[in-house]
Design brief:
By secondary structure, the protein is of the alpha/beta class. It is built from 26 helices and 14 strands. Among the domains are: 163 residues, Nucleotide cyclase, GGDEF domain (Alpha-Beta Plaits), CATH 3.30.70.1230; 136 residues, Rossmann fold (3-Layer(aba) Sandwich). Strands 1, 2, 3, 4, 5, 6, 7 and 8 form an eight-stranded mixed sheet that branches. Strands 9, 10, 11, 12, 13 and 14 form a six-stranded mixed sheet that branches.
Length: 641
Amino acid sequence: MPDGERRLAAIMFTDIVGYTSLTQRDEASTLQALEKHRSLLRPLFASHGGHEIKTMGDAFLVEFQSALDAVLCAIAVQQMMHDRKVARGEPLSLRIGIHVGDVVESGGDILGDAVNIASRIEPLAEPGGVCISGEVYNQVRNKSDLAFVSRGEQTLKNVSNPVEVYAARMPWESGTADETSFATSRIAILPFRNMSPDPNDEYFAEGMTEEIISTVSGISGLEVISRTSVMNYKGSAKKVDEIGRELKVGSVLEGSFRKAGKRIRVTTQLIEVARDRHLWAQNYDRDLDDIFAVQSDVAKQVADALRVRILSSEKERVEKKPTENTDAYSLYLKGRYHWNKRGLDDLKKAVEYFDLAVHEDPRFALGYVGLADCASVLRMNWNVEPDANLEKNRAMVDKALELDIGLAEAHAAKGGLLYNEYRGRDAEQELRMAIQLKPSYARAHQWYWHVLSSQLRWDEAHERIKKAVELDPMSPVINLNHGDHHFARKEFDKAVGPFTRAAELGFSPAHASLADVYGMMKRFDDMRREYDLYVNLNKDSIPLARLYAEIGTAYHHDDKQAFRKVLLQLEGHLDEVAGPSAYAIGSSHIYLGEDDVGFEWLEKSYARKEPYVIGIASNWDLDGVRTDPRYLNLAKRLGLD
């Protein structure tokens, strides 16, 4: 075509993962592998109607007339690369990004937003994966048996508007490539819409959502997505089928709430995702004083509809109402809203709301669980009054169980407390009890992962954290722990995705985790970018963020002189909010070869009852001291013998 003419095209951009570091380690072999890589890919491009525009070092820019051809080619390329890696151990992995849009011919090259967007989407793909834009997805979604998972709207560099991005499920990944529907017994209860003119009534709508989730979660045979994940769809214009794919559910309950004076109307409908059809719908008109009866009634109606159409089982006991006091429950919901954010100021607000909730109803067991959870996170994540918060955690858990011995959330909170008190076996018993009482409670599975991973029961631990992600896919902390699991196993490629997800969900500490994993992969440019993001996002809330980034950078470059210099600075901030743990300082000295000093700090960590010291078994910086009597003695006292 003549220069300057426009055409619509599907653009594929490919890039080799970690090419620079591979070249630095063995330039000759990597260049040889690159030439082989090019000779393997070019026939696949041609067979799918692709036109190679150019190569840029280790990257290809390829044009297709059809979005479907581009996607099928990308899958074929990644399948071939995967097969060669499995059969021959070849080191190269690719990321591929695809977008469709206008391009302009220019001297044998092509220019335009389609090229720019494809190049920006490519880095979002997992190693060995394919990411496509929403425009591509709309063209291929009904034309193949490929499955895709939404990564949400992404802000791309030099692209003015956010772009919806989808990741292809690769044929070798868990589940078959044509799996597009999920069991109808797996249900998401979406945030009820507030149709009242008064915005303050929003808490009534949230309370309706929370109560139904809590009630239906107590029914065996149903898997209910947690509140923290479904609340991400509050006000969303996404269609039910999109939400179903993203949350991997077969059923969706949606509804609305309208208040007029002392009367309320609740409208609900249950939708089967795969067929986009209504299974059941109902309206309720009640007095406001009867709101909990309405919530209970709605939950029972949903349960009965699901039993008749899905479970075909006899009626079971549904969870009892947590409180009859509407004000107490509204305050509790506000507390959970702030607790889920995990920031220091939000945790303090959460404590205020939970305190008000139990003041309104002193027998409100869930309110005491909220206070226990706040004390735990303030102690673990922020180093705020660790001794006082440990005692408060213990007292609030005991109070909740005294009020309701069958409350799953209270048993899970006790399991977390016992784990942090180095009582792993007792913690496991409590967490098993919590899961038995409420299989859909994601936090119980998450805490169980902590217990199992500390004992190096990796396969069991992986099942727990996967289940937690499945139940609460929008939880940044659970996604972070999923990445932590792979990081501890040195499965760095697998850790990138969960860490990225946690960062995308707004959890700023995840950028430090991403920096660490990139550092272990020797992707130093990516490492520096993530450390900079971590520091900039936390400069007000974490005063030591810059020092943490500096010591991490020194560690990954194995610059022990710089590492020791920053470590000495950090030691002076031990008791500060968001300060370092004695455990981290101790393991750092052992990394430097200063075992005697290191064990002194580890003993200090144990004496201070720091929770993180229980992770010594999975800390590879301690691999050189596993047979040291001091290590064995500490492991025994931690219950890891």
